[in-house]
Amino acid sequence: MAFPSIAQVGAFFAVYTHGSTVRAARTLGKSQSQISANIARLEDEMGTVLFVRANGRLHPTERADELAELARELLDAYQRFTAQGSDFGTDRQFTIGAPRSLSMTLLPKVSKALRTDLPGLKIKLRFRSYQEIVTEVAEGDLDIGITKLPVLDKRVLVQPMCDAPSVVLMPKDHPLVGKDHIQPSDIGNQPMIRLGTGLDYWEKIELAFRDQKLTANFAFEVGGVGPACRMVAEGLGLSIVNQLMAEDYLDLLGLAARRFKPEIMHRFVCVSSPFSEKAILLKKFNDTVATHVTQRRQTNDAAE
């Protein structure tokens, strides 16, 4: 029995997750005929049918369903194996997707570190919503993206990045600054600034208020952590946001942050394509992010 090649496994998983040879070919940068040929060879070598065509579409068989997760794991392992090399290749363009608020915090530091180690690297930053980041990574428009769990799209690989607690933002002269942590009863009916994203997150905030027989007084709704910070600085209310995105706004805008109780965590991850040909750059990015997150955590712990 001949062993399937990584190209055949990649073609199978691309068709399985994208639903057609056309979209798989676009994702892999191959011709449609190459994808079809790799699928045919894989079916022949494994002695099974992986897809059937019905109503003009390819549909995976039960055997394909059984093999899909194994293919994903194999491609993940192949990416990690390839990343152990040291040759960054000739393609020195790297496109990163992230929520806009990270443009004030993590990304400038990470970009500087990458350019220091790789002077010829051209970095493109694209600011998107969390779901747009996952979709654009899956479709090959971004090399890597920073997003939050849960990530339900099976077309991407997920690498844990960091956890960030929820904090209450306030001006430095606010009466609540003296508290180590803040709960709904401390906020009471004070006006608050809500972010217009993360429905599940805000449901948890509202539940925390209801558990203390209170109703959160959301007087404003904005589209990101940055605008929320600026509105807090103007004295328009308090805001509950994730620490990672807010921390570099504090000194800039004269704000203070105190942990919100009950604790609500934001779990950040990096997502990449299982078909990426930039595995070494991806690892370099992940390692650089991990270094800066660790340094920031140590700084915060020392301050506390």
Topology, please?
Layout: H1 6-18, H2 21-28, H3 32-46, E1 51-54, E2 57-60, H4 62-82, E3 93-98, H5 106-117, E4 122-127, H6 130-138, E5 144-148, E6 157-171, E7 181-182, H7 184-187, E8 192-195, H8 199-211, E9 218-222, H9 225-233, E10 239-242, H10 243-246, H11 249-253, E11 255-260, E12 265-272, H12 279-303
Parallel strand pairs: 3-4, 3-5, 7-11, 8-9
Antiparallel strand pairs: 1-2, 5-12, 6-10, 6-11, 6-12
Helix pairs in contact: 1-2, 1-3, 1-4, 2-3, 5-12
Features:
alpha/beta, 12 strands, eight-stranded mixed beta sheet, D-Maltodextrin-Binding Protein, domain 2, 3 domains, two-stranded antiparallel sheet, 304 residues, Arc Repressor Mutant, subunit A, 12 helices
Give a verbal description of the structure.
This protein is α/β, with parallel strands linked by helices and 304 residues long. It has 3 domains: 6-82, Orthogonal Bundle (Arc Repressor Mutant, subunit A), CATH 1.10.10.10; 93-161 and 272-303, D-Maltodextrin-Binding Protein, domain 2 (3-Layer(aba) Sandwich), CATH 3.40.190; 163-266, Periplasmic binding protein-like II (D-Maltodextrin-Binding Protein, domain 2, 3-Layer(aba) Sandwich). The protein has helices spanning 6-18, 21-28, 32-46, 62-82, 106-117, 130-138, 184-187, 199-211, 225-233, 243-246, 249-253, 279-303, and strands at 51-54, 57-60, 93-98, 122-127, 144-148, 157-171, 181-182, 192-195, 218-222, 239-242, 255-260, 265-272. The strands form 3 sheets. Strands 3, 4, 5, 6, 7, 10, 11 and 12 form an 8-stranded mixed β-sheet that branches. Strands 1-2 form a two-stranded antiparallel ribbon. Helix 1 (6-18) packs across helix 3 (32-46). The mean pLDDT is 91.
